[in-house]
Amino acid sequence: MAVFDRIKFEGPSDVLVWKYPSDSIVSGAQLIVNESQEAVFFKNGQALDIFGPGTHSLSSSNIPMLQKLINLPFGGDTPYTAEVIYVNKTAKLDYKWGTKSPIPIEDPRYHVLVSVGAFGQYGLKVVDSRAFVTQIVGTMPEWTASSVVEYFKGLITSKVKDIISKYLVRQNISVVQLSAFLSELSKQAENEIRDEFNRFGLEVLNFYLTSVDIPDDEKKKIQEGQFQRLQMDQLGDERYQRMRSFDVLENAASNPGATGTLMGAGLG
Predict the structure, then answer these.
(1) What is the mean pLDDT of residues 202-211?
(2) 8 Å CB contact between 221 and 112
(3) What is the rounded CA–CA span in Å between residue 266 and residue 255?
């Protein structure tokens, strides 16, 4: 295995975590950390020292925890095994999220189950490199922006569905009215999602719900619910239910095969 005495990473901006491709390092090696980066030293699966921007000469004075673990005779060119993982701490504001398949939500005004799609974007920044690497990245050689989207999509979808459902009930509005409340929904989602991301060493900088899409066939359900609601308001519950019973009997009369079933159910 090759032994390296100069360690650095200059990769694309969408790479959040990158593992140096060698675990054989020479004591006295130069560790170069750019602005908005941190380098985390690992040994035997333990996250040891963290280095910020600058050039660091790896000696017993600046990695004392590593010195205790392997008892290095620092001062010579003694190689030792340890991993260096770079963390990109630059803020990224254009993570995209969206429901891969429509999510079912009950419309509280018209009492129909409607499947809707929700989409938006959010911004993140790594604030705790140790927590982020140990809890999420693990042994992966690198973690990109697309890895973040994939990892958190389930959490975001679940939270957004819950937030929309509760908001509809609280405001007593229909799903078709949601577009007028996207700003308020975005703020609520940001507040609730922030704590979840904090556990992994990530700070949510913003969170936006930009659109709620309702397919045409789902809109028909709401239109039917609107029509029924209008009839109930005009006729009253008792007259509306009586009218619905007449509709059922009329349909049965036009379908002789169903008459026996209805009589058996006590509707004859």
Answers:
(1) 95
(2) yes
(3) 17
C-alpha to C-alpha distance for 82 and 184, rounded to whole angstroms: 48
pTM: 0.73
Give how far Cα 239 sits from Cα of 79, 224, 247, Å: 89, 18, 12
Which amino acid is located at 119 in the chain? F
Q: What are phi and psi of 112, to 5 degrees?
A: -125, 150
Q: Which of 154, 134, 143, 147 is nearest to 199 (CA)?
A: 134
Kindly indicate the confidence band of residue 48, based on its pLDDT and cuts at 50, 70 and 90: confident
Q: Report how far residue 213's alpha carbon sits from residue 207's, in angstroms, rounded to the nearest whole number.
A: 18
C-alpha closest to that of 192 among 214, 217, 162, 213? 162
DSSP string, 100-147: SSPEEEEETTTTEEEEEEEEEEEEEEE--HHHHIIIIITT-SEEEHHH
Mean pLDDT of 84-112: 89
Q: Where does residue 88 fall: left (phi above 0), alpha (psi -120 to 50 degrees), or beta otherwise?
A: beta
The span from the CA of 206 to the CA of 137, in Å, is: 23
Q: Which amino acid is at 87?
A: V
Tokens of 232: 């109930």
Look at residue 137 in the predicted model and tell me its pLDDT. 77
How far apart are alpha carbons 242 and 235 in whole angstroms? Answer: 10
The DSSP bridge partners found for residue 76 are 74
